């Protein structure tokens, strides 16, 4: 799965689980970025580029963003450093994006 398609599917999943619109940005410079801004009309979710390499980081980011939006708790970068592991496989990517 290409990166842009993966990002679109993450975006769609967060919107589906929060039952609302969001803006999603990927921070290429800070791979460990995880930020949710709720001061805007449409919540902004910023995820680090490590989502492309670490399936656990991507999964945790989605869950954290969804709960932050549901509970209306904005968060700045919390400095998460994922543990080194295998890159996402096609199967892991598909599994990550299935309906929870």
Structure, briefly:
This protein is of the alpha+beta class.
Features of this protein?
about 100 residues; alpha+beta; Zincin-like; three-stranded mixed sheet; 3 helices; 3 strands; about 40% helix; globular
Characterization of the model:
By secondary structure, this protein is α+β, with helices and mostly antiparallel strands. The chain has one domain: Zincin-like (2-Layer Sandwich). Helices cover about 40% and strands about 15% of the residues. The protein is built from three helices and three strands; from the N terminus they run H-E-E-E-H-H. It has helices at about 5-20, 55-70, 90-95, and strands at about 25, 35, 45-50. The chain has a three-stranded mixed β-sheet, with helices on one face. Strand 2 and strand 3 form a beta hairpin. Helix 1 (about 5-20) packs parallel to helix 2 (about 55-70). The radius of gyration is 13 Å and the shape is globular. The two termini are about 20 Å apart. The model is unreliable at about 80-90 (pLDDT under 50).
**H/E element string?**
HEEEHH
Return residue spans where pLDDT drops below 50 for at least 5 consecutive residues.
79-89
Task: Give the overall form.
Answer: globular
Give me the count of strands. Answer: 3
- Main beta sheet, described? 3 strands, mixed
Mean pLDDT: 81
- Total domain count: 1
Name of the top-level CATH class? Alpha Beta
What fraction of the residues are assigned to beta strands by DSSP?
5-15%
Say what the CATH topology is. Answer: Zincin-like
- State the helical fraction: 40-55%
For the largest beta sheet, what order do the strands appear in spatially? Answer: 1-3-2
CATH architecture verdict: 2-Layer Sandwich
* Beginning-to-end CA distance, first to last residue: 20 Å
Q: Please give the count of helices.
A: 3
Instruction: Determine Rg (CA atoms, Å).
Output: 13 Å
The SS-based structural class is alpha+beta
């Amino acid at each position: 799965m290409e990166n842009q398609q993966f990002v679109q599917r993450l975006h769609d999943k967060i919107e589906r689980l929060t039952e609302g619109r969001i803006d999603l940005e990927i921070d290429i410079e800070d791979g460990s970025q995880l930020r949710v801004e709720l001061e805007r009309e449409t919540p902004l979710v910023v995820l680090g580029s490590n989502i492309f390499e670490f399936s656990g980081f991507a999964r945790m980011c989605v869950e954290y963003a969804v709960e932050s939006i549901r509970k209306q708790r904005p968060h700045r970068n919390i400095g998460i450093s994922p543990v080194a592991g295998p890159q996402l496989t096609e199967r892991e990517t598909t599994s990550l994006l299935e309906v929870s």
